[in-house]
């Protein structure tokens, strides 16, 4: 019978040497990119760390003993081969960051106990095999950043859409019909807003005078530009004529 890869064996001494203290004083155990195939039992002796990075390994399972890490604020498990999460993950009440991106998780393998992580602010479920989002995630009232990109989602629960503190919600590359239509609508608006073209007859006298003054100043600047420079460069200008919209009402008052 062919055995799978054994992976690298982590000893307690090795793990202790991989602990680093962050600038904010947190102790971080970094076991990423170590070729680990099974959760190292020895690190349970270091369960008082605040951050644990097991990303980019070959882990297929996280044991129930993860509950020993009660001080964890930050847990990174991305880019492994996990097809389930233990129910005991819900006991990590101090957790604010959880990344399980790029695994083999399905909707059914997400434990309902995730909704017990009341302090969770950042949750990344992208690049998995989810066909829906559990409505119970709507109980994570502190979430500010939620990633579910590159899954097979067709709908988003209202309870998740209405999370009170959600600032970033990445749902890209999912077969979401409602969001596809919405994105097309928003995109068309953005295209219009990035360019402002008006005719002189549509401007009031004060606005026209102001625009002509700005144009004259620009022409003077062009005349002062050395001959070897063919074009003016505005590397910090992100939106063409962006000041037109921002200052328009001020001009009209004048």
TrEMBL record:
<dbReference type="GO" id="GO:0005737">
    <property type="term" value="C:cytoplasm"/>
</dbReference>
<dbReference type="InterPro" id="IPR050216">
    <property type="entry name" value="LRR_domain-containing"/>
</dbReference>
<dbReference type="InterPro" id="IPR055414">
    <property type="entry name" value="LRR_R13L4/SHOC2-like"/>
</dbReference>
<keyword id="KW-0677">Repeat</keyword>
<dbReference type="Pfam" id="PF23598">
    <property type="entry name" value="LRR_14"/>
</dbReference>
<keyword id="KW-0433">Leucine-rich repeat</keyword>
<feature type="domain" description="Disease resistance R13L4/SHOC-2-like LRR">
    <location>
        <begin position="27"/>
        <end position="127"/>
    </location>
</feature>
<dbReference type="InterPro" id="IPR032675">
    <property type="entry name" value="LRR_dom_sf"/>
</dbReference>
<dbReference type="InterPro" id="IPR003591">
    <property type="entry name" value="Leu-rich_rpt_typical-subtyp"/>
</dbReference>
<dbReference type="InterPro" id="IPR001611">
    <property type="entry name" value="Leu-rich_rpt"/>
</dbReference>
<protein>
    <submittedName>
        <fullName>LRC18 protein</fullName>
    </submittedName>
</protein>
